[in-house]
Amino acid sequence: GLPPALPALPLELTVLYNSLLFATGASDSAIQGEAEGIRQGLLRVLEACGACGQGLSTEELWQKVLQEVTAEELQAPLHRLGALQAAWWLAASRLRSAAGLFRLLSSAEDPERAHRSEGENELLYLLKAWRVPAEVASLPLVQSAEDLKEILCTTAAFLQGLQELEAGNFPTALSLLQEAAGGFCSKKVLAQIYTCLGCCAQRMGKPQTALQHLKRALQVDFQCLPALSHVAAVYHELGETEAELQALALLYEALEKKTPAAASSGPYFLIRTELLVHTPILASLLRHRHPSEVKYLLAQRCLQDGRVADAVEHYLDFLALLQEGLQQQVPLDGGSALPRIPEVFLEAASALEQAGRHQDAITVCEEVISRTTDLIPRMLRVEERLEQPECPSPGAGLAGGLLSKKKESLCCLAWRAAGYLHQGWAWAKLGESKEAVTQFSRECLEDAISRSGCLSVPESLLPEVEVLQKIRLLSLIGRGAQFLELGRHKEALLDFQHGLQILPGDPAAASYLVQALWKLNRKQEAAAHWQKFSQSPAGEDGQQEGQGRPFPLYLVSCLKQATFPHSASLARSIRDYLGTTSRDPSS
């Protein structure tokens, strides 16, 4: 091109400023090529002044230009380009580079203004202290520097608020986000800021304040659906199930409608806050739920709250969504609220069972069993080697992959075992004790479950092994209870004894053991066991969570069904027996 000429540079830099703004507006993003355009403009300024800037970094180039170029007519165009450069740096989260540039701009104007008060945010102070250059009528701008300054202030507060939120510095984050909320931005961005304020307040342990911010976000822009998702989460934290379910229902309805985004009613700017703020934490906080996730959450919360009829309806709706196309309906990212699909089927079976739809529950479980059977190896060893290498070996990655494969096999084993367990209880509820015994026995307890048993289990596999042990216990209790119904008391006794070997002290197994002994007329043994177990500190609910880990939701109904139903009458009979024997030792 033509060599730079000092008289033409103000026009040239203004044209560059406008063209870069147009390029950004057309691409809807701040891109590297536009930042390179600013660099070339600065090099032409130095060349016109008889200096050279080749080989300098962008930060060094700006420092050289602002310190060595003193021509008055170039100050306003350079300041406008500086604001544009700061916008690119903010978009790249290079906040220090942006602060350094505005420190240079403020020092170039007035060295006394480059000092801030203690505790004041430096970048925001420097941005506010920057004097916007006066516009020249002969050099029109497509976006004024004054508007750009306001947008940069909002962006800087928003970005730093997000950084502090991610770092766990919640009071500072709250202050910065409140500063951003009072800034210059669209309704869409304002709703996003209020959503972030709500998340910050929630993490500070202030759920009511969080709700206020989130509701404000929805008032500003009802299409900010992540705010509605967070509202449901806050109500869940507060234990307000009715309000949570209402929020989830609204969210599902809104997602199903897929309303197109409303056009902005405010003035349109080529550089906007939404183009400059796109950090991972913001994407996480503003993550849009998929309709299938929300439908699952509705089903799960209803099941947890005992709203069985509603839970069944939502689970069946969810399963229908799966039939429409698995890949399209189920989000596969790590942030999804969905558990593994077999677990959803088992939860649906649990809901159907509790609603009295036992045959439907059996059918749903059969789907799980048929899909997982071929994925389970004939032999699965999960023991941990006694000698662990001190340093990672080249085969460490292979070992990790093997462990992951074993974990998956254990999950499949647990899902299939739970399917048989649910089928057993369903047949029992239908009054088919023999069929129930068959289903409780189908997992071949001695063989299949023992595939996961070992003396030393890797810590990463403990949750799966504990679930399998609990399923094995529940299957033994279920089968033993059916044996009692059929009058096969000795076989029932063996199952309850076996169950107590798996999880010693389990209240349900212990109570059933006492009843089996009582029915076998081994009353003295029954009384001795009853006295032993009634004095033990075992949990009354029979949950006995492993290492503080709750058992899966799909097992909750089985845990309830395995609870011994005749505790009071059995205790009364044993107390009467003990009272009689104490009065008549010969008996």
If you had to describe this structure to a student in words, what would you say it looks like?
This protein is mostly helical and 587 residues long. It has helices at 9-27, 32-48, 58-68, 72-91, 95-109, 122-129, 145-167, 170-181, 187-203, 207-220, 225-238, 241-257, 273-276, 280-285, 291-304, 308-323, 326-329, 341-354, 358-372, 396-429, 433-441, 462-485, 489-502, 507-519, 523-535, 556-561, 567-583. Helix 3 (58-68) runs parallel beside helix 5 (95-109), helix 10 (207-220) runs antiparallel to helix 11 (225-238) and helix 21 (433-441) packs antiparallel against helix 22 (462-485). Mean pLDDT is 84; it is low at 384-399, 444-455 and 539-547.
Short description:
By secondary structure, the chain is mainly alpha-helical. It has helices at 9-27, 32-48, 58-68, 72-91, 95-109, 122-129, 145-167, 170-181, 187-203, 207-220, 225-238, 241-257, 273-276, 280-285, 291-304, 308-323, 326-329, 341-354, 358-372, 396-429, 433-441, 462-485, 489-502, 507-519, 523-535, 556-561, 567-583.
